[in-house]
Specification:
The protein has 22 helices and 20 strands. Helix content is 40%, strand content 17%. The strands form four sheets. A six-stranded parallel β-sheet has the order 3-2-4-5-7-6, sandwiched between helices. It is globular. With 567 residues, the protein is of the alpha/beta class. The longest helix has 20 residues, at 342-361. The termini are far apart. The site of thiamine diphosphate has 19 residues, from helix 15, helix 17 and helix 19. Residues 392-395, 420-423, 446-449, 472, 474, 476-480 line the site of thiamine diphosphate.
Length: 567
Amino acid sequence: MAKINGGTLIGKTLKNEGVKVAFTLCGGLSGIYDSCVDEGIELIDMRHEQAAANAATGYAMATRRPGVAMVTEGPGVINMAPGIATAWHASAPVIGMCTHTASCFDGMGAVQEFDSADLYRSITKWRGYCTSTSRVPEFVATAFRHAMSARKGPVLLDFPDDTLMLEVDEGQAPIHAPYSYRTEARPYGDPALIRQAAQLLLKAEKPGILIASGILWAEASEELMRFAEIVNVPVCYAIGGKSGIPDDHPLCGGPVGYNWGTIAGADVLLALGVKFEEVLNYGKGDFFSPDVKLISVNIDPAEIGRNRPITLGIWGDARAVLTQLADAAGRILGGKKRPDTDWVRYARDTARSIRDTLYAEASSDMKPIDPRRLGREVCEFADEDTYMVMDGGDIQAHVTPMFRATFPGSFVSATGGSLGHLGGGIPFGIGIKTARPDKKVIVIEGDGSFLLNASEIDTAMRHHKQIIVIVSNDCQWGMVRHDQQLNKHKDVCSKLSEDVRYDRYAESMGAYGEFVTDPGEIKGALRRAYDSGLPAVLDVRTDPSVLSFADYRGVELRSYLLQLHKQ
Ligand SMILES: Cc1ncc(C[n+]2csc(CCOP(=O)(O)OP(=O)(O)O)c2C)c(N)n1
Ligand SMILES: [Mg+2]
């Protein structure tokens, strides 16, 4: 019988799972690379392991399939951790893979020996250390099962060198079809609770729907719109859920945080795939009415009732539950749609007036450029084929509510939801462009965030991934400096150089670069960057004095925290 080694088994098992690309940085991976090449799996070699995991996360978000990052033992897997932590907070199914010094020397101090499981315990759903070549297919299968089941998330597969090098008879390591070792079936909600939820929502005077990233992971946008239209209920989103419903949809009530009116006024709220964490004020305070009846739908039962009381909790997949809710509501309404109410009109007008206000505030012709004007210009340049990737502090807060998302996933925050990890913008963009070469990919980020992973412009060049990176260069870690100013701290450690030219940095790698100081020049620069066909970086000088809503929110949260401690 033919012999096969562990490295070859990895390429074959990844192929068996439909993997088309892996993001990587080399080390003890050459045996795995050989088999990936043989199996037609594209290898994108990055400049940092964190970026490899970030790119895999962007890829997973654009495809809703697993993204794969493979790195070397010891320093490689240590460097990958922040990227995996970001995937963890984004509930992204990322298969992190690393090599390991030979297991026969475990504990003896081999060069680069490292216990990855310990480091990854709090940022992965599952970790596997595979010490037997014949079990490679089983470990890979288990990794995909954990990453893709229930609430999705990253896993870590750790392969020691002896597992990779040793050979077994092919028959000892059979590779089974994915359906035989994992299911992607969608759990439906309890039918009795579905009926109650539909009744509650239809009886409400001011019903609202709140979505978060769970809607996108469940690929439930169509079902959401169908249901919202039947019951005629406005849909607001937490940032992670932006693009779950197009911003121009007549029932889109916009982002929470800008639109407390709608959500805070709701008497019944259906929360779909939502985590009531700090960005939602833990489900309390001025974001929600104290008497609101909350229906929480989540694939993770541990999120149902977390941080605030609920009226009904439905454990299930958002897409499956929305189909059930639409059927139940359709029966109650006798096949008709619920007519418009003052409440629906109010929600629509509020969303529109917030949008108008934001755009009006973003029309300054001053120099240095108002970051909101920059955001407006970039959002106007984007079209219905654009992915907008956000990174950075204040600039992210300025631009997010302005961007008109069109298709599911078209808005991506690279900072891992409530983790707020800066610097993933460029690698996220590379992952998305790899998944969707036909789309425009724009990354907008702060100058501080840019330089955390700017070396990946080189990756974009070598692999011909055209991403357009816009740096809001206020020459500071703006969000932190503003916090220092608002809270009367010392003005230290938050200034950045005015002399660094990010466009020239990009040009030194062969990318397109432009320096922009005039707001009237932004659109032209964007167009030239796009027409260059190259990865591009625009260094746009922005006004360091403009505060964002997040800066003010920071002050509010601080006083809330102090109040809590006084009680
Ligand atoms: C990896 C990481 N390090 C530090 C922070 C703390 N932090 C939050 S906002 C911010 C400033 C961001 O500056 P920049 O990217 O220039 O965007 P700006 O706020 O200036 O628009 C920092 C340092 C973080 N969130 N993530
Ligand atoms: Mg900055």
